[in-house]
Specification:
With about 700 residues, this protein is an alpha/beta fold. The protein is built from 24 helices and 26 strands. The protein has four domains: about 5-135, 3-Layer(aba) Sandwich (Rossmann fold), CATH 3.40.50.2300; about 155-260, PAS domain (Beta-Lactamase); about 265-435, Reverse transcriptase/Diguanylate cyclase domain (Alpha-Beta Plaits); about 445-675, TIM Barrel, CATH 3.20.20.450.
Amino acid sequence: MVARAEGILRLLIVDNSLTDAEAVINTLRSAGHAVRAAREDRPAELEQLLATQTWDLMICREGVPSLSPIDVVSLMHRLGKDLPCIIVVNDKDSEEQFYDCGAQDIVVFGDNRRLQFAANRELKNLYIRRLGRRNERALRESEKRSRALLESSRDAVAYMHEGMHIYVNQAYLNLFGYEEPEDVDGLPMLDLISADDHHKFKAVFRDFAEQSESAPVTVVANCVRADGTSFNAKIEFSHARVEGEDCTQVVIRDDASFSVDDSQLKLLRDHDLLTGLYNRKRFVDELEKTAFQAAEGNGDAELLYLVLDDFQAIKEQVGLGTSDVIIKSVADLLRKTLKEGETLGRYGDQVFTIIIPSHDDNVVDGRANAYLKAIDDYVSHANGKTIDLHCSIGISRISENQASVESVLENADKACTKAQRAGGNQIARHQAQLESEQSGAQTSEQWQKRLTKALQENKFLLHFQPIVSLHGDEQEFYEVLLRLELIEGRMTPAEEFIQHAHGLKMMADIDKWVIRTAIETLSEHRHQFPRTRFFIKLSEQSLHAAEFVDWLVATLDAHKLNANAVIFEVSETIALDNLDQAREVIGKLKQNGCEFGLEHFGSGVDFSNSLNTLDVDYVKINGAFVENMAHDSENQAAVKAIIEMTKQAGKRCIAEFVSDANSLALLWRLGVDYAQGYYIHEPSEKLDYDFEDDDL
């Protein structure tokens, strides 16, 4: 795929003047482009053109009725189009209103040389992005083929680094009787060798490892399965590289292993055993094919991410066996609802995924409603109990602008989570256009009105996320998180609007709203739960507000709340960039009884100096290090270093963004004091976490 098919520039012009549109086309032709253009000035027709055809450049004229440049850019974001947009304005004075809308450039009508320059630049950038996406797809496809060859191999294959397993294929797991790759991840290979053959195995492996260019070496040894039984096998070592690291490829052949018909193997590999639907791996393969077609300009599609509501409670109610029967019945229902061309898979325990081959949101919404109704109408009578099933569905678009199928799945998952949080049994769509508007397409004046109204009418909302003890003193901690309530009940996380509030110098006022509301909530809650304490973030603008600490002390006194009940926190980078103000505020707060924490610790260039410079009580490890750290050795090393550093400094350490069980287990082994993240408990409007029943 190149930037322009056969050298043709596919140009889409939004203009209600045919004469002016012709002038733009002639300007680009005079720059050497073979232009194939379309002009449109009606919203519905423009959306149809964007959704069904591939374009290289958009020229959007100011002043078109019912199609402002901001609306056009928002539409492209919603459709997931990677299409450079140049806005043509009538005069210089009109430029400023479009600076933040997300367009690539703004050109005054008639400035032909500037238009040619901007168009050439954006076409070159588009070509680079498209080439990058194509190379990424080629790399993923190559990696997938390599992984597929390993997974389909009848030989048991593993890769080791310093004697430890870093990858094993399914045949390897089957041979040794393990179920999941995680069961052997990090396990020394010596643990799979009979003790009688340890000496022989170590001698052969040591000689092999000392010669980096040696040919493959074979040793015959007695191997031990997970259940303790043993078998004789031929083990072959050869040198390899994985992700740039030297490692050892291990191939084990067991003469007693039996062969299975290839078609039977393929059936087992591709389908979920319980439901007969595509399994997760095969569905992702189909999703990658769909994404590739969209990236090649062969039509967008959309993904439905369907999750059964409250299924864990149902499983506990009816038992594992009956819950499997329900899952199979649901799969049958979805299969009956499936239309030709749609692809259905079982992505997880109670998660089903469906590819709808349509770019039309109305069509996809109709299909989502059909699946929702199919589940809603289902009633099961199990073990004498009536099970009334419901589901939530998240929708995300599959378009050329998606970097990977992972982002498509993540967007659909997020949309489904919103549907569940709104009460379940409903559909939510990943609204890229809303996020775009909130991150730039809205003017400063619009954001100021919105945020001012939120302060005046209490449109802000607090959510609370528990922080649990692993090795620290038993505490009842909650982090206070801010949300903004928009129309239709949509909750916007703070990261989507904080930058605008900061630019408008409104953060000090927002901080005060958060603190005042949090203190009111905490003061009331502590009547029943006197050990509860809140972590509350402070902005840079509050550090500079001269009256802030005095106001805070007065607010605490007014609610008769002990200052020790609140721990204030500020990001490490903000603290270091405003060192004098941070030291002063920290000192005053601690004098009044509050404790203080540094969040996103590890972001700074020399973060080891932060603990010597700032007198804080808590350190929150940068979540970028913690998230999925179980699969990233560099992040593990960084987290370990931070934990050791904070212990030496006598501080208490908190790991945020804990996203999976492996990361939590690893953090426990590393000795972190406290942990926080969606795996432990997602943020909620309620302070209802049971710290007493915490068995982490």
